[in-house]
Amino acid sequence: MSLAFLQPDKKVSYIRESLTDEERLGTPNTNFYQNGKRAALIVIDMQKGYISPEPKPWVRDLSPNIREITDTMVTNVQKLIKASRDSRIPILFTGDRYLPDGSDAGIRGEKFPQLSEYMRAGQKWVDIDPRVQPNDGEPIVWKQASSGFFGTHLTPMLIDRQIDTCILAGVATSGCVRATAVDAISSNFRTVVVEECVSDKNVWAHKASLFDIWRYIATVAPLEDVLSWLRNFSGSTEQD
């Protein structure tokens, strides 16, 4: 399958204009991630505060189709989670969570006051959305920064499981997904973002970030390609 974000779009015309003839074909770089031997799925910030359909006190207006985009993404993440469980691929979740008084939100909380006010321990918005609820044994890595790696135990948890490849899904493409992809690569993990399993309230930022991740940071692959890979995954994913 070809990558949809590389198709013509007048809103992000620079993407097409900067491509080589070969890149315009939109062929995913499958070898980059499929050469990995032990993969893990990292589900990023699929929390009620970010993806649940219920109204949120800090959100006034939404783009007309953002609910449909988000719900479609959730359905795709469900497929990816099921395939990972079927293939016994380890799954780790990340989520934003601050102290009950929000005092550890730092500069990020200054820029986004709603984080320190609503994404606190004990608030319902912090909970993982029930549509993608972790199973027993699937840890949640709580964080205070954009990246799932920064200031957390995610790297040693992956090393302990002998993981060499990270499959990324979740929200938001231009924020925590991108930051986690950068740090995954910086930590020497093969990294692939699953195109249909990430979303952003800003469609322009979503496509631009996918382009940057694909060309400059890690790689991006269509869901069906990743599902096919998982179905035929030959690397051992069990702990010795």
Topology:
Blueprint: H1 13-17, H2 30-34, E1 39-44, H3 48-51, H4 66-86, E2 91-96, H5 106-111, H6 113-118, E3 140-143, H7 154-160, E4 165-171, H8 173-186, E5 190-199, H9 203-217, E6 219-221, H10 223-231
Parallel strand pairs: 1-2, 1-4, 2-3, 4-5, 5-6
Helix pairs in contact: 4-10, 8-9
Question: Explain this structure to me?
Answer:
- The protein is an alpha/beta fold and 240 residues long.
- It is 38% helix and 15% strand.
- The protein has one domain (4-231): Rossmann fold.
- It has helices spanning 13-17, 30-34, 48-51, 66-86, 106-111, 113-118, 154-160, 173-186, 203-217, 223-231, and strands at residues 39-44, 91-96, 140-143, 165-171, 190-199, 219-221.
- A six-stranded parallel beta sheet has the order 3-2-1-4-5-6.
- Strand 5, helix 9 and strand 6 form a beta-alpha-beta unit.
- The radius of gyration is 17 Å and the shape is globular.
In short:
The protein has 240 residues and is of the alpha/beta class.
Rounded mean pLDDT is 90
Shape: globular
The residue ranges in which pLDDT falls below 50 over 5 or more consecutive positions are 235-240
Largest sheet: 6 strands, parallel
Structural class per helix/strand content? Answer: alpha/beta
Number of helices: 10
Instruction: Write down the CATH class.
Output: Alpha Beta
Give the strand content. 15-25%
Order of helices and strands: HHEHHEHHEHEHEHEH
CATH superfamily: Isochorismatase-like
- Proper CATH architecture: 3-Layer(aba) Sandwich
**In whole angstroms, how far apart are the ends?**
35 Å
Strand order of the largest sheet: 3-2-1-4-5-6
CATH topology: Rossmann fold
Number of domains: 1
What gyration radius follows from the Cα positions, in whole Å? 17 Å
Helix amount: 25-40%
